[in-house]
Cyclic nucleotide-binding domain-containing protein (Streptomyces ortus), 154 residues
Amino acid sequence: MNDSVTSNMMRALPAEHRQRLLHLAHEVSFEMGSRLFEEGGRADRFWIVRTGTIALDMRVPGRRAAVIETLGHNQLVGWSWLFAPHTWHLGAEATTPVRAYEFDAAAIRGLCVSDPAFGTAVTQWVGDVLAHRLRSARTRLLDLYAPYGSGSRV
């Protein structure tokens, strides 16, 4: 699992903004094997994992979906809700039973507009997560499909 500071909401957002965000959360649960979203679907919500793990995957023509990253405690699931056209770029599946905080994307985007400091903090947090996920996707796809892998050693 990734322990990156940028993907951990508890460390990435200032306490004031974190509390405002969590005030709008509601708790949800997913059974193992549940799909949270599919690549290309409408991104109208996002989650912060409380317990369990979620695999982010990417469709690969002619092959089964490639798992790009596995997310766990306090990590953000979903970034596509923040950036137009608000469609998922990856898929997500619960690999264990999951408990999470769920957020309505439109409500959070509205709060980002009405409170620029909050909006800047959330955008920076999600942007950092996005940059990390793109690097992870590149490395994972090279490991899976390039003749000599990514060249990185784990």
The CA atoms of residues 18 and 150 lie 35 Å apart. Residues 1-7 have pLDDT under 50 and may be disordered.
